[in-house]
Every structure is written in structure tokens, then in C-alpha cells.
Amino acid sequence: MNDRPKIAIYWLGACGGCDSSLIDLGESLLELAEAVEIVIWPVALDFKHDRLAALPDKSLALAIISGCVRNSAHREMAELLRAKSCVVLACGACACLGGIPGLANLRPKGEIMAWVYGEAPTVVNPERIRPERNCEMNGEQLELPEFYDHVYALNQVVAVDYYLPGCPPPLDLLLGAIQGLLGNQPPPPGSILASAKSLCDSCSRNRTKPARMELKTVSRPHETVVEPEACFLAHGVICLGPVTRDGCGGSCLSVNAPCRGCFGPVAGVCDSGARFLASLASLLAPGDEAEFRALVEAIADPAGYACRFTQPVSILGARKLEAEDKQ
């Protein structure tokens, strides 16, 4: 009789990077596959939806779910996995925070559809054909999932037990999370399985930061040169390290790119984007009103910068745009 714990791995609205990280576990993944029974993992194994649906409720020890919820098919699978699982792990920035797909919340659904199926320069669609939820083909009725007006993080749709942020989560945290949640002493429910401190606390560039920072200029990364050991913010390049949870290993910083916030807010902060914009405003040091306006205008996309990975769970995410179809 097979008494190995059953797990499910599923990918909702995302790029697949979290699944790639699981595959990158290499030999550790083979060891995991021997210790558990993987009931469903569409990206790697040919197990079907019906097999999952036929299982008794709470028969899975763990469901690892990556990706945001953008349509009704995502919601259906999230609810099914929740019902079948004792523990649900939101894996990656999209599941934990909404991720980069969540930036779509800054535009109405109709505007997005109009761009994708008509206005984008690479689109050839003179008849302006749009996807229809229901249609008939060869005598069969076909149905597409409902495309929601809003992008949701996983815990805005179903109850989540644990969170592992990152885009994607690093291999050591990913393996540690799975082993810990399947072990005899799992962390307290609701835990974020990463450091509570900010990335700045472990960043080697922090020692070059001045005691009092004042920004006379604001530049995008391609507009200036920042030495590999220098603090990005001290050189006017937006870096979310001060408000972003540590745990990524500084992978962006190691290739001389500023932090974009994929690990989400530090402990005690609900909205890292709002916190960062407030702190950034306090650093601006213009000489006069004209310089102030120039500094503000240099921040080309404040919402995109500050909420790149967190829009659905931010203050902005609570605001839902009207979704009128654009003809």
C-alpha cells in the first residue's frame, strides 16, 4: 500500500518560472519524488484534472500553487486544490502578491483587450475579432474561461497556509519550504518562509550609503553608471531594497541591477509600495520648485516601480477600474 504523502504542484496565471525552479532542484527533486506521490504537476507529469477531482477532500498533504488568479479557470483550480489539500503553499511573487501580471489592474479590461487584439503594432486583425466565451465548432460547443476585470493574489481567492515569495523563489528556500511543510514540525500557519528583515540589511552596498541621503537627481538604471559596490539609491537609482524582504540572495544586486521588490514587504509592513514612495519623497532634495518638478517627473512610472510585484495586495489593488469593452 502506498502511504507516501500526496502533493500537488500547479501553475495558475504566471510565466512558469516557479515550476522551472522546482525542476532546477535536480537530484533533490528526484529524492523528493521518491518520498512523496505527486498527484498532479501538468508542466512535468501527465496526470489529469479528473484524477485530482476524484480524490477525497483533504487527502493531499500539500499543494504548491504558483501564479495569480486572472480568470475563472484559475479560480476553479485554486478552489479545487484548496478543498483537496491539508496545506496550501503560495509559491512565488504572483501567488503571494499578484506579481507582475497584477500591473494589469492599472488598466481597464476593455483597454487591455483592445490593445492585444487590435491596437498593438504587431497585431494583424483587421476584423477586430475578439475571443468569445462560447462558440460552436464542428458541431461541438466550446467554452473559454471568464477573463476577470481584476488580477488577484492567491489568498484573495482561497485560504493560504504558507507563503514563499520570490520571482522565482531561490532553490534553497524552495527546498527548505517543501521539506519543512512535509516534516513533523512545520512553521506556524500563516508564515512567510523568508527572512523578516529587509534586503538592505544584508546588502554589501549598504556600507557605501551616506549617513544622510539626499537625492538631487533620479535616474533609470540605463541612464547612469553605478559601480558594483555602490548604493543605488545614493546615486538616484530607484531600488526597493529598504522595503523588500530579504531572502533572494541579492541575485539582482549581484549583476548590478537594483531590487524591484519581488520578495514583498518586510515584516510589519502591509504595503511596501506605499512605504517606499513615502520614504522616497523624504529623500528628494530639490533646490527650488522647478527642480522638484523635474525630480518627480523623472520617476516615469511611480506605481509600476513601487508596486511592480505587489499591486493586487496594495492600496492601489483595492481600487477596481471600470471594465468597459473598447470597440
Key terms for this structure?
327 residues, Rossmann fold, two-stranded antiparallel ribbon, 11 helices, 9 strands, 29% helix
Going by CATH, what is the homologous superfamily of the largest domain? NADH:ubiquinone oxidoreductase-like, 20kDa subunit
Give the overall shape.
globular
In the CATH hierarchy, the architecture of the largest domain is: 3-Layer(aba) Sandwich
Q: Tally of extended strands?
A: 9
Distance between the termini: 59 Å
For the biggest β-sheet, the strand order reads 2-1-3-5-9
Q: Average the pLDDT over all residues and give the rounded result.
A: 92
Helix content: 25-40%
H/I helix tally: 11
> SSE order, as H and E?
EHHEHEEHEHHEEEEHHHHH
Which ranges are low-confidence, i.e. pLDDT below 50, for 5 or more consecutive residues? Answer: 322-327
What is the name of the CATH topology of the largest domain?
Rossmann fold
How large is the share of residues in beta strands?
5-15%
CATH secondary-structure class of the largest domain = Alpha Beta
Sheet with the most strands, sense and barrel status: 5 strands, parallel
Whole-number total of structural domains: 3
Give the assembly state of these chains. Answer: single chain
Organism: Geoanaerobacter pelophilus
Pfam family, one: Oxidored_q6
GO molecular function, one term: iron-sulfur cluster binding
InterPro entries: Hydrogenase_assoc-protein, NADH_UbQ_OxRdtase-like_20kDa, NiFe_Hase_small_N_sf
